[in-house]
Amino acid sequence: MYKERSLTDQEIDLLKSQNCECDDWTLVTVAPGFNPHFVKNTRFSGKIRIGLLDEEFELAGGLRKHACINNAVIHNCEIGNNVVIENIQNYIANYVIGDNCFIQNVDVILVDGMTTFGNGTEVNVLNESGGREVHIHDKLSAHFAYVYSLYRHRPNLIRRMRAMVDFYARKHASEMGYIGDHAMIVNVGYIKNVKIGSYSKITGAMKLKNGSINSNGQAPVYVGRNVIAEDFIISSGSRVEGGSIISRCFIGQACHLDHGYSASDSLFFSNCQGENGEACALFAGPYTVTHHKSTLLIAGMFSFMNAGSGSNQSNHMYKLGPIHQGIIERGAKTTSNSYVLWPAKVGPFSLILGRHYQHSDTSNLPFSYLVENNNATHLAPAINLRSVGTIRDAKKWPERDKRRDPNKLDYINFNLLSPYTIQKVFAGVEILKNLQATAGETSEIYTYQSCIIKNAALRRGLELYEIVIHKFLGNSIIKRLEKTGFTSNVEIRERLKPDTPIGTGEWVDISGLIAPKSEIDKLLCRIENGEITRLKEINKVFKELHEQYYTLEWTWAWEKIQEFYNVTPESITAGEIIEIVEKWKAAVVKLDEMIYNDAKKEFSLSFKTGFGSDGDIQDQAMDFEYVRGAFDKNPFVVATLRHIEDKKALGNELIERIRNVK
């Protein structure tokens, strides 16, 4: 702010002549250099501070507007330098308004009593009637919310986490609101108990109540026309517009809600998109996307997920209230008109087609298809590994990260293959082999978790799982040995030693962050015993685990390499590594060829139906090519072919580098 001074008698007389009123002008102070000519038709009450009114705003279309205060009622406010406050229908009360703000055509902006600006709001995520509630706050990460909502079997942990949120909310409670520098608030109805960050742009919103808009210069927030928001937090870089209605919601960084999207008791984390549809008690982890009017996401946990039109879930198989929830692990998709009856759990990178009523748990059969057939769920394990869509999705997520705020709330691991997914692949292999052993290898069908698996699907699943194991473990060993010259097996063995013993055992995906379960357990124990007492300390641990991912991944991968290839750290040789790399090369090429062939299907004759209207088959082919492009020039196809050659070269380079090592 600025050093203030009292108004002079001449300034008071001028303000009065410009239809300004105040019960006690001694409570009004101004910045040195204040020009009263730009304050008109305004009533002041309470303690008032006003800055300079020297500069002009250039508006869209070239119109220029001088800083001013016109046609307003202002109570107990601190107003920064060079603002426009104009045409306030009712009043502005109890706000600190930053420099260069533009506030025009607004009904009311007020703070009434002590408020936490949405911090501490209880969001009944995953269960509308409570039991997994998350108390939101400005610094909420997907990982904190994951633990807070799912680990109810550790009540002391939840009490400690709740205390941290309560402390944060009390610390940031105030009887004064805040509008940050360069904020624009135009044509807005009702704003009550809302903290508005710098560079926020709010245009045409109907009602904003009890919330925080955490905008900043690097990542502004936009709240658009006809939006209604109550009990909310909107994080940096997000957009909520198009008549969207949110109640008791946390909107994470770089999210976008538009076209009348409706959400209650829901959490949306980084890069989520919601348009047209509806959410209730939704835990939308990073990159949860839903675009369709007919789509409802309810009482479920998702991440890296795309919901098809008409997707729906139900938790209404109850007598004493809604208790059922569902977890769709990272990377899943639902097709049009899909339905899942909660409770259910679906493994990562799976595709859900049709309607499913069986309460199945396929979490240890990743990359699968769940297909409805005669009211039963048919499971095709691993089949999604050869889908061009799966690979395209994995590539697009990091490219579509719209977060511009240097202080990121979520630590997101984009890897398609990781210890988290590969451990599930190993578990899937064991499940499928046990089914063969129990029912016999010649059985036509197998049953697992109320799902039907055909013999051919089971055998194909085992084949694909083996391929992807070779790919991941081979990737790991090549990465570990890259850019290093070796003269002996002893040097190779030394390089293969992990940098840390941390990383063995089970890994978890806590809504975007992939880490060893042992380290997450250590963090939770430190919270339970009172060693960690602040939100920023928890986020620091999440950040460290994210930054150490590849170091910890190698510890896990090296242990699996020893088990899978039957090698030992004390005796492994260059020859054995070459055998592993050759298997890796074969796996990579085979998988890429499957993906290439899957992509080729989209350029088949049947896909060209409807192209080349009123023409012959040649016109059809030409029209398709002009719209979709030629297959051999498609960027993804070209990249896939290049990937095959690059990976062959990478493997050959390592083989040549260690071929003569003894």
UniProtKB/TrEMBL annotation:
Residue ranges occupied by any DUF6819 domain in the UniProt entry: 489-658
Ranges where the DUF4954 domain occurs: 5-436
Name of the protein described by the UniProt record: DUF4954 family protein
Organism: Petrimonas mucosa
